[in-house]
Specification:
This protein is of the alpha+beta class. Helix content is 16%, strand content 50%.
Length: 226
């Protein structure tokens, strides 16, 4: 039983050495040409081989007084006396590192007793209070609210008119630099500044909501970045 194991170990070692010889670049040199034989050196090991024989995975295919044609890595390589051939090393296969998937930013908002989803947020670096409104085309706030957080709507906004329950109202349309809700931050979000003095929560409309994934279940609403 022990002899069988020893024999198996020796066999595996020979296979390993054979594979190792195939896995690295080789330097082959012709040291002599003798009739149907060639004296070659592969790396540090030399041998005299006949036509058809191999040494260190290098086969002598044919020979003349001037050259020996050797088969190296399935290619025929003619070498004269004293000439050397360097086989190419195998390509290095880099281990593929597992891709690190960054979790998407998400925020949960819970309805109040009035079934409204109100949450805090940030506009252009200033803290505000939002009322989630999927019926609003864009983020909407009063002139008073815009002035409180330093939005220069008169200079940067485009004047227009919008219809409300109380009749036509003047407004300014503009783009906010950034809007943040929870850990979700979006750049360049459209907003409407109403020419009113009300102090209601700022409406978080579809100019923000359409750019996130919105899921609602009962009294809980979850916003997740796309």
């Amino acid at each position: 039983m022990a002899n069988s194991r020893c024999g198996l170990v020796k066999y595996l070692v020979l296979i390993f050495l054979s594979i190792a010889n195939l896995s690295f670049a080789q330097e082959i040199k012709v040291l002599g040409l003798f009739g149907d034989r060639a004296f070659i050196k592969v790396d540090e090991k030399s041998a005299v081989i006949k036509v058809g024989q191999s040494h260190q995975n290098v086969q002598l295919k044919s020979i003349s007084s001037q050259k020996a044609v050797l088969v190296i890595e399935s290619k025929e390589v003619p070498l004269g006396l004293g000439e050397t051939f360097q086989s190419a090393p195998p390509p290095v296969i880099e281990e593929k590192k597992p891709e690190i998937v960054k979790p998407k930013a998400s925020v949960s908002i819970y309805a109040n007793l009035g079934h409204q989803f109100i949450t805090s947020g940030v506009i252009n670096g200033r803290i505000v209070s939002f009322l989630v409104d999927t019926g609003a085309t864009s983020i909407s706030m009063s002139r008073k609210q815009a002035q409180r957080i330093g939005i220069d709507f008169r200079t940067k906004g485009k004047e227009g008119m919008s219809g409300t329950a109380n009749g036509p109202v003047k407004h300014w349309q503009m783009t906010l630099n950034s809007v943040k809700v929870g850990t979700i931050t979006l750049p360049f979000v459209d907003a409407t500044i109403r020419d009113t003095e009300d102090d209601l929560p700022i409406l978080l409309g579809m100019s923000f909501l359409s750019r996130v994934k919105l899921e609602q279940s009962g009294q809980k609403m979850v916003l997740t970045e796309k």
